[in-house]
């Protein structure tokens, strides 16, 4: 049996180097942080509905948070594991998604570098929400 978290982390790692594009949903033409998570989830067989109508800066993200459950993600707390999705508060009105590849590394769409990158998780990042692929109720 394949670990769904590890499969999600591997799918995200496979997108490292893709170009950055705000509202991008296709790895070939570009991804933003939301598009990266949606594309990685889709690569594992999920059918996520990616939010729209957001900018690089948003005063709040509450209207979009329920979409996580629809993508098969469940809120968790505690240690970060491979495949966990992290909502990070980078600064005032700067909300960002990253996919954990292990306890210390993440893949995310970096607007400044204009591509998807794999890097260590910055200890200064404040994790404001943390999701994991929900366990299969049938197994």
Short description:
18% of the residues lie in helices and 29% in strands. The protein is of the alpha+beta class. It has one domain (4-133): Alpha-Beta Complex (endopeptidase fold (from Nostoc punctiforme)), CATH 3.90.1720.10.
What does this structure look like?
The protein is an alpha+beta fold. It has a single domain, classed as endopeptidase fold (from Nostoc punctiforme). The chain is built from 3 helices and 8 strands. The strands form 2 sheets. It has a 6-stranded antiparallel beta sheet. A two-stranded antiparallel ribbon has the order 1-2. A hairpin with a 4-residue loop joins strand 5 and strand 6 (105-110). The longest helix is centred in the N-terminal third of the chain and has 11 residues, at 33-43. It is globular, with a radius of gyration of 14 Å. The model has no long low-confidence stretch (mean pLDDT 91).
Spans of at least 5 consecutive residues whose pLDDT stays below 50 are: none
Can you count the beta strands?
Answer: 8
Hey, roughly how much beta strand do the residues contain? 25-35%
How do the helices and strands follow one another from N- to C-terminus? HEEHHEEEEEE
* CATH class wording: Alpha Beta
Query: How many DSSP H or I helices?
Result: 3
Radius of gyration: 14 Å
CATH topology: endopeptidase fold (from Nostoc punctiforme)
Structural class: alpha+beta
- Helix content, binned percent: 10-25%
**Can you tell me the overall shape?**
globular
Q: Distance between the terminal alpha carbons, to the nearest Å?
A: 11 Å
- Strand order, biggest sheet? 3-8-4-5-6-7
CATH superfamily: endopeptidase domain like (from Nostoc punctiforme)
